[in-house]
Amino acid sequence: MKCPFCDELEDKVVDSRMAREGGVIRRRRECLACKRRYTSYERIEESLPIVVKKDGRREPFDRLKIVSGLKKACEKRPISTATIEAVADRIEKRIQEMGETEVSSRTVGEEVVRELHQLDQVAYVRFASVYREFKDIDQFMDELKILARERQEK
Questions:
Q1: Across residues 71-88, what is the average pLDDT?
Q2: N or C: which end of the chain has fewer CB within 10 A?
């Protein structure tokens, strides 16, 4: 691996640890030329599907878009960044396990909606109102009524 400080290719690994529940290996390396240390991360290369948008455009699956959407929905809610990352990990894993080369943006959105429904009702309504493109207050109220009924049934 190339040293980020001096571009030398020779290094030695001084420490290796698992991260993200075994999904990533974190390695501390020491450059043999300049003696500086740096960290690298190693993970399995995953083949994620192409996302087909509503208008027919195709783009690579982007986990960061999911994280961004979750953060917006969870803004000012008592939800940690670690929880948001875990939700994004679960969604990415389910999409990958589908084994498809292409997946619709609707499928990805429904996975996010399902996770938020279980995580936080306010974040769920925020995301759903944008994702499902509520046209008026009646659609918004219908969704709130469904949530209220579910809450009473518990």
A1: 96
A2: C
Residue among 148, 146, 118, 143 at smallest CA distance from 130: 143
- For residue 154, pLDDT over 80 is answered with no
DSSP of the chain, one letter per residue? Answer: ---TTT----EEEEEEEEEGGGTEEEEEEEETTT--EEEEEEE----PPEEEPTTS-EEE--HHHHHHHHHHHTTTSS--HHHHHHHHHHHHHHHHHT--SEEEHHHHHHHHHHHHHHH-HHHHHHHHHHHTT--SHHHHHHHHHHHHHHHHH-
Share of the chain above pLDDT 70, in %: 99
Tell me which amino acid residue 136 is: D
**How confident is the model over 99-124, as pLDDT tens digits?**
899 999 999 999 999 999 999 999 99
